[in-house]
Design brief:
- The protein has 258 residues and is an alpha+beta fold.
- Helices cover 17% and strands 38% of the residues.
- Helix 1 links the parallel strand 1 and strand 2.
- The protein is elongated and about 60 Å long.
- The relative contact order is 0.18.
């Protein structure tokens, strides 16, 4: 019988006391490998900690296995200390692709960032934002008056996108969710599902009077005039989930949640 090779693990943790306690317990029990040398990074905390770990490893692209020591934990596995290296070795990989955000500001400079969850545009003042939306160079909406708008990856469809009443998207659907945030006109527009290779362009109308910020996960650019969003298929990030608790299973379960 061939034995499964157990991976070397690097443990990282968020700031919550529960995460820090787990970090101490697990490193004492299993040791600690440097992140740059580990086969797998074990992220302890909430979904935010998982995203931070993935962003920090964009260059190395080391697989990340998360365990929930936060609040929501949709991107994480249940916390369990026993036989952890074998559990990680038998976990099911899920590959995700981030979004590229290129945002132009009033001084005509472009600012770029990657988003694992979503790229969101939000009004900066009491006045609503006014956006023109193009998909692959074709204007699909001349003017959307709203609090904002976002483009979400399948992995991010259960985050801000879901809170904005956007659709939950399975990972293998090869689509992106385009979702308005508190649309005022057209009031009944609920957004769209776009082919994953689509390039979405937002032109900010009356940008001087109605300033808008653009955010790629935690990277924010203020007073933007134009934002382009596209999927980066050349960047592949791997999350690991326990067998029977894959990301696709979580997405399916979430759609039947009360």
């Amino acid at each position: 019988m061939t034995q499964t090779k157990l991976p070397t693990l690097a443990f990282v943790a968020g700031d919550r006391p529960e995460a820090q306690t787990a970090l101490t317990r697990l490193t004492e029990r299993y040791g600690q490998s440097p992140e740059a040398e580990a086969d797998v990074i074990v992220a302890l905390g909430g979904d935010g900690s998982m995203l931070e770990t993935l962003h920090r490893n964009l260059e190395r692209r080391t697989p990340v296995y998360g365990m929930n020591r936060g609040s929501v934990g949709f991107l994480l596995n249940d916390y369990e200390e026993d036989d952890l290296p074998r559990r990680v070795a038998e976990a099911v990989p899920t590959v995700i692709h981030p979004l590229q955000m290129d945002a132009w500001t009033e001084d005509e400079r472009v600012h770029s960032g990657l988003a694992i969850n979503e790229v969101s545009l939000l009004r900066q003042t009491r006045q609503s934002a006014k956006l023109r939306i193009q998909v692959d160079g074709r204007v699909r909406m001349e003017e959307l008056a709203c609090d904002g708008c976002l483009v979400a990856t399948p992995a991010g469809s259960t985050a801000y996108n879901l809170s904005a009443h956007g659709p939950i998207v399975p990972l293998d659907a090869k689509v992106l969710a385009l979702t308005p945030i508190s649309a005022f006109r057209p009031r009944r527009w609920r957004g769209a599902l776009l082919p994953h290779e689509s390039r979405v362009t937002f032109d900010i109308l009356e940008a001087d009077k109605r300033p808008v910020s653009a955010t790629a996960d935690g990277f924010e650019v203020r007073r933007v005039t134009r934002v382009e969003v596209r999927e980066r298929r050349d960047v592949a990030l791997t999350m690991l989930f326990d067998a029977g608790r894959s990301f696709d299973e979580r997405v399916l379960a979430e759609q039947f949640a009360a």
